[in-house]
Amino acid sequence: MLQLRAGRGYTLIELMVGVAILGSLVAVGIPNMTNWVVANKAKAASEFYLEGLSMARRQAVTHNARSRFVLTPGSNGQFDWQVDLCFPAPGNPCTDNAGNWSTTTAASSGDPEGAAGFRSVLRAAASLPSSNLLIPTVAPDGANAVYYTELGWVDTTIPDRLAQLRLDPSAALAEDVRAAAVAVTLAGMASKCDPAVSAPDSRACPP
Asked: Where are the annotated coiled coils located (predicted)?
């Protein structure tokens, strides 16, 4: 008569070996995954700023108004950005130090749509890698804003306009992330460029 043998279980030693192997895989995998996520966020950082500059130009043309793109220091050392609108009128010149600009809680007083008009858009850079990993610099030094006319051109009457925002990886990311920049032309067009190459390479940043 045949007898069924009970299934053989795992010994304590086999279980401990399995746990050790799993622990090793986790120890290697988690740092690699973390580095991969950070590197991808760093690569996408230029898109974050390009979005804001493109929005500022688009809103100026759409609303036939003046707009501005303003950088402010964020909590992680990167720059938050905000897009504001202003409608020129007598006594409301819409310059860097005068004019009734929109805020995140209220439309500009000159907005044809009144209180229901455009409210400023604020984007925080909290999701970007910290400035210890991705180093931001602006050109010219100290610049923090771009002002647009109703036609979407840069308002050259306002001095010290932001011409370029550069993002350089730290040594920890240098193998996985290239330096990148966002440049703004006088025509108001913002585009990504590569500060590591020179003209006539089409990827080069404007002089």
From this structure: none
Report the number of distinct structural domains present in the chain.
1
Query: Cα-atom radius of gyration of the chain, to the nearest Å?
Result: 26
Q: Please report, as a single letter, which amino acid is at residue 38.
A: V
Q: What is the pTM of this model?
A: 0.81
In a domain, 161, yes or no: yes
What are the tens digits of pLDDT across the range 74-95?
999 999 999 999 999 988 889 8
Task: Tell me which DSSP letter residue 132 carries.
Answer: T
Cα angle 152, 187, 81 (rounded to 5 degrees) comes to: 60
In this structure, is residue 2 part of a structural domain? no
Q: Using alpha carbons only, what angle is made at residue 81 by residues 78 and 85, rounded to the nearest 5 degrees?
A: 170
Task: Pick the more confident residue, 188 or 32.
Answer: 188
Report d(CA 79, CA 70) in Å as an integer. 9
Position 141, amino acid: D
